[in-house]
């Protein structure tokens, strides 16, 4: 089992798909990494040699921000917005949509489950 960036990659999947299990690596980045290292897109993780896994690990460590570092960066960016008390920061703080979506209806993902209001029947 290949372990890259603290993530155990599934051995029976193709390399491109398995790399997307790492937070911060999508399909495009996975294809770019495979092309850079000359790894065939159809190869399975279990067919990779230890040297190839090491190459992938070194490439990801050198060129990409992944997993914990990426999560930390994202959290720090949101915290910075909240500390600035700018509009986006206030929306984050209140748990409302940040990017201008409507909230009169919908927005249930950010607002949570609907709370009934007494005497609101028509």
Give a nutshell description of this structure.
With 122 residues, the protein is mainly alpha-helical.
Tell me what you see in this structure:
It is built from six helices and two strands, in the order ββαααααα. It has 122 residues and is mainly alpha-helical. The chain has two domains: 3-64, Helicase, Ruva Protein, domain 3; 68-98 and 106-111, 30s ribosomal protein s13, domain 2 (Irregular). A two-stranded antiparallel sheet has the order 1-2. The radius of gyration is 21 Å and the shape is elongated. It starts with a strand and ends in an 11-residue tail after the last helix.
Task: Outline the secondary-structure elements.
Blueprint: E1 3-4, E2 7-8, H1 15-19, H2 27-37, H3 50-63, H4 67-84, H5 87-94, H6 108-111
Helix pairs in contact: 4-5
Give the CATH architecture of the largest domain. Answer: Orthogonal Bundle
State the shape.
elongated
Helix content bin: 40-55%
State the CATH class of the largest domain: Mainly Alpha
Largest β sheet strand count, sense and barrel closure: 2 strands, antiparallel
Average pLDDT metric:
92
Element pattern in H and E: EEHHHHHH
| Rg estimate, integer Å | 21 Å
* Strand count: 2
CATH topology name of the largest domain, in short, is Helicase, Ruva Protein, domain 3
Total domains: 2
Which residues sit in consecutive blocks of at least 5 with pLDDT less than 50?
none
Helix and strand content put the structural class at mainly alpha
| Distance separating the two termini | 61 Å
Question: How many individual helices?
Answer: 6
**Strand portion, in percent?**
under 5%
Strand order of the largest sheet: 1-2
Organism: Sphingopyxis alaskensis (strain DSM 13593 / LMG 18877 / RB2256)
GO cellular component, one term: cytosol
Region (Disordered): 95-122
GO biological process, one term: translation
């Amino acid at each position: 089992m290949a372990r890259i960036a603290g993530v155990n990659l599934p051995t029976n999947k193709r390399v491109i798909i398995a790399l997307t299990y790492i937070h911060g690596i999508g399909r495009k980045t996975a294809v770019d990494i495979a092309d850079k290292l000359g790894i065939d897109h159809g190869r399975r993780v279990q067919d990779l040699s230890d040297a190839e896994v090491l190459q992938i690990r070194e490439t990801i460590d050198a060129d990409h921000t992944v997993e914990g570092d990426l999560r930390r960066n994202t959290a720090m960016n949101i915290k910075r917005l909240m500390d600035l008390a700018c509009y986006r920061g206030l929306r984050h703080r209140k748990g409302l949509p940040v990017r201008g979506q409507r909230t009169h209806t919908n927005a249930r993902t950010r607002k949570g489950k609907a709370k009934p209001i007494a005497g609101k029947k028509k």
